[in-house]
User: Which sequence fits this backbone?
C-alpha cells in the first residue's frame, strides 16, 4: 500500500494529518456559501528530480458574517512526486499569512 496525502494545516492544530478522512469532514459540509473568489499569488515551481515543490500565497475573498467583504491569506507549499510515471500530490503545508506577519512583527 502506498502512502496517501499528508498535511500540516491550521485545522489540524499542529498535528500531521495522514490520508483524506480528516478533509472529508469539511468536504461533506458543502463548501463555501455565497459569493467567493480565490486567487493564487506568486506561484513558484521547483523541480527536484521526481519531486516538484510548489509554493504560493492563496487569497480567499468572501462575504463575512456581517455581510462585508473579507480577505484571508494562506501561505501554501505543496509537494508532488512522480510515481509510476504520474504526478501525485503527496504533502502540503498551509499556514495563515496573517499569523505569520503577526509573529514577525512581534519578534
Assistant:
Amino acid at each position: 500500500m502506498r502512502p496517501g496525502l499528508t498535511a500540516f494545516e491550521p485545522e489540524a492544530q499542529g498535528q500531521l494529518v495522514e490520508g483524506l478522512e480528516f478533509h472529508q469532514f469539511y468536504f461533506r459540509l458543502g463548501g463555501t456559501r455565497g459569493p467567493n473568489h480565490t486567487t493564487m499569488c506568486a506561484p513558484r515551481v521547483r523541480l527536484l528530480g521526481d519531486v516538484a515543490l510548489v509554493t504560493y500565497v492563496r487569497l480567499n475573498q468572501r462575504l463575512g458574517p456581517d455581510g462585508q467583504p473579507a480577505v484571508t491569506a494562506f501561505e501554501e507549499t505543496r509537494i508532488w512526486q512522480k510515481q509510476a510515471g504520474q504526478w501525485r500530490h503527496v504533502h502540503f503545508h498551509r499556514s495563515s499569512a496573517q499569523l505569520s506577519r503577526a509573529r514577525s512583527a512581534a519578534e
Strands lie at 6-8, 17-18, 36-48, 51-63, 69-83, 86-96. The chain has a mean pLDDT of 87. Helices lie at 21-28, 97-106.
